[in-house]
Amino acid sequence: RVRHCTSMLFRKEGGTVPESQLGFLADDRNVGRYLVARKGVVDKAAAMLLTTIKWRDANEMYGTGTPEPDYRNNCFVPVGLDHARSIVFYSNHARTLELDAEKTFLHTFRVFESCISDDDDISRVVWIMDFNGFGFKHCSTRQVSIACDWFGNHFPERLGQIVLLSPPKIFQTMWGFVVRTMDADSARKIQILQTDEEMRTYFADHFSPETGQWLLATSKTDPANGYPTGTDLSLIPRTKWKGPPVVGLSAADGECAAVTRNPSFAAGPPVLSPPPLPPAAEEPDECTPSTFFDISWLNKAKE
């Protein structure tokens, strides 16, 4: 029904589903994620899919035919799988050379397109946000706006965990406003790791030794000096599921499987207490981002 309704919405607009997106719409797993995101309401799931399919076609999200990510100018890097087969990504604003917010997020979503594989049971994302080198110059309302739009509307049921490494005090102040706008389930998806000990413990519990060691070393390396010695981003096509892009690290398939053989990952409690549940409200009729990406806290922070 969702597929049929989506096709009908295209026809009402005088068009058809773009040929490049027929495979995306035909995949039951994709349709299911949009249905879950809209709480089982078929019409709303179809409207959300319509918006995403148009966006995917306009931004050349073509599965294996998607343009290559720009790792040279952007810092959003796959560094292996966690113990539940979620793919782990590392990002750092200070290591990003690209100044255009839209190009930065195009890179991010092209990386998702090239690394996520439902056929291989790699369907969820763990995002490591490193605040090493972060400053006011990296604060961009344009980035916030695009993130809320693209993640809220075009990436449902994919984010498993967001891990923030040593966020500055100004961020923690803003976080106090953010957390109050989020439901408890969304809040549990966010971890704040402030000390080396917290990072080591979390990395050891969830990632392979290679991934954990690389993340810790990278978070302590001055972004002006690039990445830790041995890092080679050109290795990513081969290392994306195996570990960080490090020279000499070419885990065999058996080793990769060993890292992920224990599918028992459960998001731990956030460092900050979960906020109270928000008042019950009906799902909006239009395709709008979830509360996970609600930016109303920006206005509250100014009051």
UniProtKB/TrEMBL annotation:
Residues spanning the signal sequence: none
Pfam families listed in its UniProt record: CRAL_TRIO
Organism whose genome encodes this protein: Florenciella parvula
GO molecular function: phosphatidylinositol transfer activity
Compositional bias (Pro residues): 271-281
Protein's recorded name: CRAL-TRIO domain-containing protein
Region feature (Disordered): 264-288
Domain of life: Eukaryota
UniProt domain CRAL-TRIO: residue ranges: 128-215
UniProt xrefs under InterPro entries: CRAL-TRIO_dom, CRAL-TRIO_dom_sf, CRAL/TRIO_N_dom_sf, PI_Transfer_CRAL-TRIO
